[in-house]
């Protein structure tokens, strides 16, 4: 099977073929996800919560992400590999270049950054220097303390319009992929239709081009609770590879996410 690139994902979007993304943090799980056909793997800073046991993603460092990116890279051959830029690792363009380069050299194919208008210059600089960018809007977990908790974003017309405008601006600045997290499905649909780059949703309804989940939620082993927008596929199938296959199939045929997983 040929390697998934940003061109592959644009082709999927044009064909209306829904694609699947999942977080991964080590070679073994990543290898299994890759073999089953997950298209995009993200070394998310969610590792701060699901691997390190923190309450949020803020303590994660560039070295943490680089280490796990290198582990995942060694386990896969097909999926596009995205590495998250952690909290405060991209607060200035110069700092962004240095840290993004570290993650690309660790094996990432693309880096992900959370935020809107303030990031445009960095997105442009990264792209011009050969580093593809995945943007992330909506509930951006690194801003949890600004939001006052893990809250759905874009519920009112003004904020929905701001998120839509930021999505368009990030695409214009060079972003090649966009994650939208915990926003109303109508807004996610409007963003997906307005952009030519693929849009991946989490807690954003069924109308985005792709879906992403945290692997620990899919396998039902997150400490605490499984978020409402996620689904425990291991409970349904009883076996890890079948669980991943079920997730891929349900995204492809549009049965996941269902109404119960969205924030209407
Ligand atoms: O860190 C992460 O795992 C993420 C996904 C939930 C999109 O950003």
TrEMBL record:
It catalyses: (6R)-5,10-methylene-5,6,7,8-tetrahydrofolate + 3-methyl-2-oxobutanoate + H2O = 2-dehydropantoate + (6S)-5,6,7,8-tetrahydrofolate. Its cofactor is Mg(2+). Keywords: Cytoplasm, Magnesium, Metal-binding, Pantothenate biosynthesis, Transferase. Its EC number is 2.1.2.11. The active site is at residue 181. This is 3-methyl-2-oxobutanoate hydroxymethyltransferase. Homodecamer; pentamer of dimers. It is an enzyme of class 2 (transferase). The keyword Cytoplasm applies. Pathway: Cofactor biosynthesis; (R)-pantothenate biosynthesis; (R)-pantoate from 3-methyl-2-oxobutanoate: step 1/2. InterPro entries: Pantoate_hydroxy_MeTrfase, Pyrv/PenolPyrv_kinase-like_dom, Pyrv_kinase-like_dom_sf. 3-methyl-2-oxobutanoate binds at residues 45-46, 84, 112. Binds 1 Mg(2+) ion per subunit. Belongs to the PanB family. Mg(2+) binds at residues 45, 84, 114.
